[in-house]
């Protein structure tokens, strides 16, 4: 039974208590059932977590306070017998030392008090993990340059599946950034490279991260070794996808190919959704907030000049169950009939079942009923209450009611009572009855229309049934009505300009007034749309400014002036350029023309004066161009036009724009793509030429026709050629559209024969015109003679000079020199040396000492290499590897010379015999060597001049194999006593010597002295040697 007959409602998932009681207020004296404020959520517990516990939240508001219990997989948890793992803290469930084998499952919280129990939504506990990659070495991936490659990630076992993938190159943390050539699938983790290049060589590792458990691992490195062209093919393919309304989904598509293919997306059975986004160079298509209309077949197309490939799959859009009609709290008389009904929408169709006290029921009964719909956390509840006397405790009559003069007001009277009470009203002491202005509703409410000042006063509602009676009183006040004093007026506007809409109103001074604007029935939110709308402040003014007006701002603007009591409205039209035409479609398609049809859009209150038609083709997908029409000017009352001047066998789409006196509106949506009919080509290849090539060949070249001029399928070229002095043309067919050359091989063709050539295009529909005729020559014969008088001259153990007599044939372009170690290396071991026909000798370096080499020389031209001439040579033994040993350095008493003595070098058996010794002297005060002198082998000492400063002496052996290792010693010179010249005298002498040198050069400018130098280089060399001599003399003077 309900105490004092009081009833109430609670918006929670409520289950009946065994005793039917009905809480009516939120204070603890009356009490109420549990209402959840916090419910458990799905939890993923990392297996390696250092915090060995899981906390599931549960908190409910109730009076008296609720008691909690928890269920695991539908079974109540016994906290006494399972205390090792489960404990209750408040309403929260704490799982200590979680065990994957015991604690995975679905949990729910039950909160109960004397008024009933509620069951929380279910929460799933799972254990997350991410194992390490296998320690086995990954095999190298070898791919030819220009081909595509796939590096497999093969992620280790894991849960959950929300992994993210990146790839490292060579070392951490060098990560690969996705480009149009590289793509990392976030579905499989694989790395796709559409075209492998030499710079891709390296070691790659797949880096896997699990955000749910905050852990990352990476694989063993996979070597990629770039090692011929291929067509495009799609390797990353999105699968059949199911999504819920409102979700975001991502489709992935990537293709391999050379050239790098371009990825395009489309919806086969319609346009791509407006809320789509393409990223990663076309590799991903994102659909935001998917709706039912986004369902359909999606296609990604990969296209390059070699071909194209595509992949299609379906997207299915479903929806979680949503209540269309649910039950609500109500009161019924004891013994009366009552039917509760609910309807839910969803895709697939949801199954609805009922719960009472948390248990499924198949029939309706008294008490508290709660029901849920499968696959949704939404729950609805209702209460059935027993009889009670009327009470206004929870819903008294409003204490102060305001109504505008001549307005309408309804004073609510909603007591709690069962059975339904009888209602009466009074104003002051006057009992009210229904009249032309006053009505008492069956529900108890009082309605007054055309209110006047005489209606002000105190109004009391009386409610009475068999169990008792109650009343509640409120006051009614009359305010001045709100009136529009300045209404907005119709206005014209040009796109990009500002427009103003005025609105002002008078109102009751005791009330606040606000102005609300709407456009075509939709309220304008100034805060959100502040980029284009601005309110002009004023106490009784609601003027609005439309900034930088766009086409979508045209329409009917309504100003609503409202107070807490009443509101009034006034409207005006903002006229703008016309709206986009609709239903653009194509008919009567020909090779160079078609008929376009459309439907007129809204003219925005200004008649349309003309239409413009734009097009774009497959070669310019982002560039809309003006189409040529017949007639040239399309009148504003037309809904069709003929488009001319199109290119045959080309894919087009069209759009239409409308223009009125206020400007041109937005373009229509593009028409479906169409392809014009085929036609014979009219453009001939250009830049006809050729010649050269191998012997007995005729090479013909041209610049191919651009694809937009193919005009049809099966496109190719017809190549015609004939000797210049003959009349009959010979023709061949080349079926490759992008071919640039044809090589005709014929053993009967004489070398350097003059030919006339021309080329034309053809396709399935016919042949086009020939190009201009060009004159070319057949290939030369290879040189028939080998070079003669081949000689070699060793320069050192590693260098030789090779010379020969030129081949006296006019077609020789140059010479090829090859060399290799006899019986050790192959002929192709070293890169050949290519020389012009003016050269008849070359210097070959970096040879191996004391080795036998084969040297080969051939003449060559465009046709190839002539016969070889070979010679066998032997390089000298290497110079001694040991330097001379300096045994003494003695300065003479005056310090003007120093005597350097050394021991002879004894060469090894495989080293050259010592012929001379080379002594060099350098000073830190002189820019170059002061002395370079060679001595016979018998000499083992030398006197060298010394001056102040630090001197470096070098001694090395000289052999036929070159200079040997160097011995070096540093000596510090002192000021000589014989040096009687002052610093000033040194400077004077140096200046005079330099002056004398330049005087000689100046006086010799008119004689042939300077012209003895055969080149500017020799003259420069002589000048530099003179400067070097002067500097050395100056150093000796010091």
Automatic annotation (TrEMBL):
One GO MF term: cell-cell adhesion mediator activity
Keyword Transmembrane helix belongs to the record: yes
Organism: Denticeps clupeoides (denticle herring)
Homology family: Belongs to the immunoglobulin superfamily. Contactin family.
InterPro entries tied to this protein: FN3_dom (IPR003961), FN3_sf (IPR036116), Ig-like_dom (IPR007110), Ig-like_dom_sf (IPR036179), Ig-like_fold (IPR013783), Ig_I-set (IPR013098), Ig_sub (IPR003599), Ig_sub2 (IPR003598)
Record keyword Lipoprotein present: yes
Highest taxon above the source species: Eukaryota
PROSITE patterns for this protein: FN3, IG_LIKE
Name of the protein in question: Contactin 1
Location of this chain's protein in the cell: Cell membrane
Domain Fibronectin type-III: 580-679, 684-781, 786-879
Chain segments carrying region Disordered: 865-890
Residue span, Ig-like domain: 34-126, 131-218, 223-316, 321-479, 482-575
Transmembrane segments: 984-1004
Pfam hit, one: fn3
Gene Ontology cellular component annotations, sorted alphabetically: axon; plasma membrane; side of membrane
């Amino acid at each position: 039974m309900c105490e004092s007959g009081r009833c109430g409602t609670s918006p929670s998932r409520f289950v009946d208590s065994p005793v039917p009681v009905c809480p009516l207020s939120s204070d603890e004296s009356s009490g109420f059932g549990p209402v959840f404020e916090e419910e458990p959520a799905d939890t993923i517990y990392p297996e390696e977590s250092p915090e060995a516990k899981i906390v599931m939240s549960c908190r409910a508001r109730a009076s008296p306070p609720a008691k909690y219990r928890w269920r695991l997989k539908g079974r109540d948890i016994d906290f006494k017998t399972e205390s090792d793992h489960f404990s209750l803290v408040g309403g929260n469930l704490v799982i200590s030392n979680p065990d994957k084998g015991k604690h995975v499952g679905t949990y729910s919280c039950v909160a109960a008090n004397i008024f009933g129990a509620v069951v929380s939504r279910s929460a799933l506990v799972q254990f997350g993990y991410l194992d390490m990659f296998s320690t086995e070495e990954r095999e190298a991936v070898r791919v030819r340059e220009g081909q595509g490659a796939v590096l497999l990630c093969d992620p280790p076992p894991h849960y959950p599946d929300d992994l993210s993938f990146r790839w490292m190159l060579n070392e951490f943390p060098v990560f690969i950034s996705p480009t149009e050539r590289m793509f990392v699938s976030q579905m499989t983790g694989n790395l796709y490279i559409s075209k492998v290049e030499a710079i891709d060589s390296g070691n790659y590792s797949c880096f896997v991260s699990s955000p749910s458990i905050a852990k990352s691992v990476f694989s063993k490195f996979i070597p990629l070794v770039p090692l011929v062209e291929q067509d495009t093919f799609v390797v990353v393919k999105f699968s059949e996808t199911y999504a819920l309304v409102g979700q975001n989904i991502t489709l992935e598509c990537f293709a391999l190919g050379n050239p790098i293919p371009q990825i395009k997306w489309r919806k086969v059975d319609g346009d791509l959704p407006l809320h789509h986004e393409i990223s990663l160079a076309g590799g991903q298509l994102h659909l935001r907030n998917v709706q039912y209309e986004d369902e359909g077949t999606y296609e990604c197309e990969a296209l390059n000049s070699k071909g194209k490939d595509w992949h299609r799959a379906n997207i299915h859009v479903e929806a979680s169950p949503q209540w269309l009609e649910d039950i609500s709290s109500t009161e019924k008389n004891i013994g009366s009939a009552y039917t509760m009904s609910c309807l839910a929408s969803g895709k697939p169709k949801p199954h609805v079942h009922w719960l009472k006290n948390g248990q499924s029921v198949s029939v309706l009964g008294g008490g508290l009923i709660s029901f849920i719909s499968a696959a949704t956390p939404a729950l609805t509840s209702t209460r059935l209450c027993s009889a009670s006397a009327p009470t206004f405790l929870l819903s008294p009559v409003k204490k102060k009611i305001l109504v505008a003069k001549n307005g309408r007001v309804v004073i609510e009277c909603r007591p709690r009572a069962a059975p339904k009470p009888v209602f009466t009203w009074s104003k002051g002491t006057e009992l009210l009855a229904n009249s032309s202005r006053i009505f008492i509703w069956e529900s108890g409410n009082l309605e007054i229309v055309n209110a006047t000042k005489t209606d002000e006063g105190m109004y009391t509602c009386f409610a009475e049934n068999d169990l008792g009676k109650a009343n509640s009183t409120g006051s009614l006040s009359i305010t001045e009505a709100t009136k529009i004093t300045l209404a907005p007026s119709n206005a014209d506007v040009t796109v990009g300009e500002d427009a103003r809409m005025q609105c002002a109103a008078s109102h009751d001074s005791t009330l606040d007034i606000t102005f609300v604007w709407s456009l075509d029935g939709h309220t304008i939110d100034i805060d959100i749309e502040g980029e284009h709308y601005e309110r002009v402040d004023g106490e009784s003014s609601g003027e609005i400014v439309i900034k930088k007006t766009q086409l979508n701002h045209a329409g009917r603007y309504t100003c609503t002036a409202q107070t807490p009591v009443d509101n009034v409205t006034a409207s005006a039209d903002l006229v703008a350029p016309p709206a986009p035409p609709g239903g653009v479609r194509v008919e009567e398609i020909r090779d160079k023309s078609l008929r376009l049809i459309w439907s007129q859009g809204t003219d925005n209150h200004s008649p349309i004066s003309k239409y413009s038609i734009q097009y774009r083709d497959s070669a310019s997908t982002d560039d809309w161009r003006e189409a040529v029409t017949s007639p040239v000017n399309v009148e504003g009352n037309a809904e069709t036009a003929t488009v001319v001047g199109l290119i045959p066998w080309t894919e087009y789409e069209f759009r239409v724009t409308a223009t009125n006196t206020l400007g041109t509106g937005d373009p229509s949506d593009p028409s479906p793509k169409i392809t014009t009919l085929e036609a014979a080509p009219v453009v001939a290849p250009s830049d006809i030429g050729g010649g050269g090539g191998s012997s007995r060949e005729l090479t013909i070249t041209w610049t191919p026709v651009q694809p937009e001029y193919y005009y049809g399928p099966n496109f190719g070229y017809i190549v015609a050629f004939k000797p210049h002095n003959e009349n009959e043309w010979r023709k061949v067919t080349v079926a490759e559209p992008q071919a640039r050359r044809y090589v005709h091989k014929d053993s009967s063709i004489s070398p350097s024969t003059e030919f006339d050539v021309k080329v034309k295009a053809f396709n399935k529909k016919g042949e086009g015109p020939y190009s201009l005729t060009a004159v070319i020559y057949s290939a030369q014969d290879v040189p028939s003679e080998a070079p003669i008088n081949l000689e070699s001259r060793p320069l050192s153990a590693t260098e030789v000079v090779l010379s020969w007599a030129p081949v006296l044939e006019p077609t020789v372009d140059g010479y090829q020199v090859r060399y290799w170690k006899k019986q050790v290396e192959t002929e192709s071991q070293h890169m050949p040396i290519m020389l012009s026909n003016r050269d008849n000798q070359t210097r070959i370096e970096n040879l191996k000492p004391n080795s036998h080499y084969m040297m080969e020389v051939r003449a060559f031209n465009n046709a190839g290499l002539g016969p070889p001439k070979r010679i066998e040579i032997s390089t000298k033994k290497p110079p001694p590897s040991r330097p001379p040993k300096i045994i003494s350095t003695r300065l003479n008493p005056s310090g003007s010379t120093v005597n350097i003595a050394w021991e002879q070098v004894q060469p090894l058996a495989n080293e050259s015999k010592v012929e001379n010794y080379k002594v060099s002297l350098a000073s830190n005060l002189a820019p170059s060597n002061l002395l370079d002198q060679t001595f016979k082998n018998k000499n083992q000492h030398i006197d060298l001049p010394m001056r102040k400063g630090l001197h470096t002496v070098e001694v090395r052996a000289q052999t036929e194999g070159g200079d040997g290792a160097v011995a070096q010693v540093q000596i510090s010179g002192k000021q000589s006593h014989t040096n009687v010249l002052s610093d000033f005298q040194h400077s004077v002498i140096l200046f005079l010597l330099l002056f004398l040198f330049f005087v000689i050069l100046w006086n010799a400018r008119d004689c042939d002295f300077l012209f003895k130098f055969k080149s500017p280089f020799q003259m420069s060399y002589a000048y530099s040697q003179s400067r070097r001599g002067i500097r050395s003399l100056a150093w000796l003077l010091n």
